[in-house]
Amino acid sequence: MTPLDAKLLTREILLGFWKVHILHHAAERPIIGQWVLTELRHHGYDISPGTLYPMLKRLEGNGWLRSESAVGEGKRRRRYYHLTKRGAGVLDVLRETVVELHHEIVEEAPSHAPPKSVRLSPMPPPETESDGPPPRRPAPRHRARR
């Protein structure tokens, strides 16, 4: 497996995929943030509420989603997000783009380059010749039981 820098991949690529995923599900039915978190985690994306809710706000600010608060008591009311007509137009373009991209990178992939299994992990900065080996970490200290 090839290790990848998970934060860099998330920041540069996966955030866009998550937005497509959100728009897709909002086209099916109104969605709530907690459900989106569960859905994305089901697909293997480890996304926090601190990432999701600002993303939903941006999608709403772009006019692609609209939200409404559920009627009820309490400080925190459930917010339902609905796909707008503008969002549906964006989703149509995204679907065409995804189909084209899938065709190019999956269906037309050279047979000599099968997909590789990758592992997302934090990567240290590249070493330079003067860096030498990484420093050794001290052994963990355990407290003696009483």
Give an account of the 3D structure.
The chain has 146 residues and is mostly helical. It has a single domain (2-112), classed as Orthogonal Bundle (Arc Repressor Mutant, subunit A), CATH 1.10.10. Helices cover 47% and strands 11% of the residues. The protein has 4 helices and 4 strands. The strands form 2 sheets. Strands 1-4 form a two-stranded parallel sheet. Helix 1 (6-28) packs across helix 4. The N and C termini lie far apart (43 Å).
How many strands, which pairing sense, and closed or not: the largest β-sheet?
2 strands, parallel
CATH architecture annotation = Orthogonal Bundle
- Total number of β-strand segments? 4
Query: What portion of residues is helical?
Result: 40-55%
CATH topology: Arc Repressor Mutant, subunit A
Average pLDDT? 79
Question: What is the radius of gyration?
Answer: 21 Å
Outline type: globular
Helix/strand/pairing class, anyone?
mainly alpha
Strand order of the largest sheet: 1-4
